[in-house]
Amino acid sequence: MSYDSNNQQQPASEASYIFDSESAGEMARLMHQGQLLTRTMGGVFAGIDEADVEQWRQVIDLGCGPGDWVLDVAFEYPTVEVAGVDISRIMVDYANARARTQQLVNASFEVMDIREPLDFPDETFDMVNARYLFAVLRGEEWTTFLKECMRILRPGGILRLTEPIDLGLSSSPALERLSSWFFRLLKQNGYCFSADATSVGLTHKLPRLLREVGCQNIQQTGHCLDFSGDTDAWKALYRDLEVIFTTAQPLFVKAGIATAEEAAEQYQQMLIELHADDFCAVWHYVSMYGRKL
Q: Under CATH, which architecture does the 24-291 domain have?
């Protein structure tokens, strides 16, 4: 499936993503994160009735990054055409290259800004999927985005959103401090609905926003990933946090949240504490499903 898009990629200074969407390091981080999310959730369509999936012919992932979810769906369901869109040219090119290498002719990717009207006809897709847009869409952009999701969704189709509650609750004081700074950074830049910047600040608001755009039969599924030091997930989450807080340090300084010295000190301390023999941590996130009637 291929769609032509006239949308042009914006310069990094105008892009909405709080991190650099053209960074190779960020692409690698998102690739590992996406694989971990899918595995922890229990599969690409976990929580969705198989009777629905059997009828689907076209699905889309918005803000697809390097395309892991799209490629997994295309491989597992060869009769389903799967599209992915992202603002990052480097990620879209990489995802298309992976689709060709894996000979997944039912997967396609386009550069598109999900903050703008989507370049698809009404009622195109049986499912609209989106994951971890908390650092992509600012608070005032969510309603417009969700209306577009509903517009391109077919009657009877499903919209699924997956978003984090935290960056992990852990035994590391430095990780806790860095996480609190990150929440402040999100709030200062308008990315969340948190009242006091003590969480990602999004999952409590999404059910109401979904209802307001006409989504029906809304359900929520919570996920809890243990990435303590003695688990298989530790290495992947260690890499994830390493990239996040390397990238975030200059942002903390620019926002006046911490000095460069404070940010560097807490980052190094976090790495030490994550390697402790008794390090314990869990990461919480939520999937929300709604239907267009």
A: 3-Layer(aba) Sandwich (3.40)
